[in-house]
Amino acid sequence: MPATTATAGSSATAAAPTAAARSPRMTVTGTTLVITTPAAAPARRRPRGPYGRLFALPGTRAFTAGNLIARLPMGMFGVSAVMMIAGQRGSYALAGAVTATGLAATALVAPWTARLVDRHGQARIALPATLIAVLGSLSLIVCVRTGAPAWTLFASYAATATTPNIGGLSRARWTHLLRGSPAAHHTAMSFEQAADELSFMLGPVLAALLCTSVFPEAGTLTGAALLLTGMLVFVSQRSTEPPVAAAPRLGSPLRALAPLLLLFVSLGVVFGSMEVSSIAHLEQRGLGAASGLVLALQAAGSCAAGLLYGTLRPRSLRACVSVLATLMTLPWAAANSGSLAALCAALLLAGMATAPTMVTAMSRVHALTPEGRLNEGMTLAVTAIFAGIAVGSACAGLTVDHAGPVTAYLLPAAAAATALGAAAKGQAEGRAKGRAKNHI
């Protein structure tokens, strides 16, 4: 009997080894016949995609959750302040002046806040800076509500300039975690850019909804609560926080990034002029109520393109800006045609060139910024973008008043062409420096 069983088993193994391995096995222990069934082989897992591998790293999901919560208010505060002040004081001029003062204060304060973060660490600086910004928002609510003098509104909103650059803090964590993994770092930077676009797409819509359907101060109050909550979650993840460099910090980020700052200012002009031109064009056609949804198409296109770009091989900065400069001519052509559908499609396509350009440009910031000063370098880039947005908005407003909104659509195209020139110049300078190093 045992010999017969062994022969049958050998025959089965030769015919189908997999089936035999999974069939019951009989063994004799003393006078007892034992039948055992081996466990089935574990099912093969599907290979993770680039984003799956990214968020499989320990701690990344937790700090990203805090990052996304704290980032949403970045698209809420400006709209909320304008609606709250204009609604309570009856003056859009005052509301615009207050928010412009806040942007100017941010341009001055944000690089210093980022420098302190690089010097002392994210948790030690970001949380106190956030508390100051939240107190500034609460003070603004109280001053607006109680009818305090106008100067208190300016002072309160200026205090919000200490808000840390949460996108920069998150990008610094990815850079720390993914050293030596350029492909994974590219995916992470693409995700961060998509998160930026998502916050500026959803933030204004949420702010407008809260201010109109709840009460005028609801947008600012909710934004402050989200900012504080998200930052608490973010800084509590100490395992992924970049260490403070012990070595002396050599080199100036401003000097290192000088060739790129014109590019970032030009990109800001693209964003600011496109927004004002679109709002004015839609209002002229009696579609002002739909302006938020139409502009959201541009952000949606950028968000989708950013996520897709993270799965592809990175392109050169010059190539990305070339596509941007080409697609930024589409809104002007669509506005000339008079078709709303064509304008929506043009804004969607133009937006799809934004994220790849920003991801690639931020990668250049990472490469050029001196060691230990990454937050400061990224904040300088963001400050340049804000400056460009202010210039673009002002120029587009003047163009709309004197030449009409269709002509104003030429401004984003011209600014994108300027960005292309800056990218080409920066690439040529980089090659020249590379040749000089090779000769040394």
Structure notes:
- There is one protein chain.
- By secondary structure, the protein is mostly helical.
- It contains 20 helices and two strands.
- Helix 4 packs antiparallel against helix 11, helix 10 (182-213) runs antiparallel to helix 13 and helix 12 (253-284) packs antiparallel against helix 20 (410-439).
Brief account:
The chain is mostly helical and 440 residues long. It is built from 20 helices and two strands.
Map the helices and strands.
Blueprint: H1 2-15, H2 17-22, E1 25-29, E2 32-36, H3 50-54, H4 60-71, H5 77-89, H6 92-120, H7 122-146, H8 150-159, H9 166-177, H10 182-213, H11 218-235, H12 253-284, H13 291-309, H14 317-327, H15 330-337, H16 340-352, H17 354-368, H18 374-403, H19 405-408, H20 410-439
Antiparallel strand pairs: 1-2
Helix pairs in contact: 4-9, 4-11, 5-6, 5-10, 5-11, 6-7, 6-8, 6-18, 7-8, 7-11, 9-10, 10-11, 10-13, 10-17, 12-13, 12-17, 12-18, 12-20, 13-16, 13-17, 14-17, 14-20, 15-16
- Secondary structural class: mainly alpha
Mean pLDDT: 82
Placed side by side, the strands forming the largest sheet appear as 1-2
Radius of gyration: 28 Å
Number of helices: 20
Which regions contain 5 or more consecutive residues with pLDDT less than 50?
A: 1-21, 434-440
Fraction of residues in helix:
over 70%
Which range does the strand content fall in? under 5%
Q: What are the secondary-structure elements, in order, as H or E? A: HHEEHHHHHHHHHHHHHHHHHH
Can you tell me the overall shape? globular
- Sketch the major β-sheet: 2 strands, antiparallel
| β-strand number | 2
**N- and C-termini, Cα separation:** 85 Å
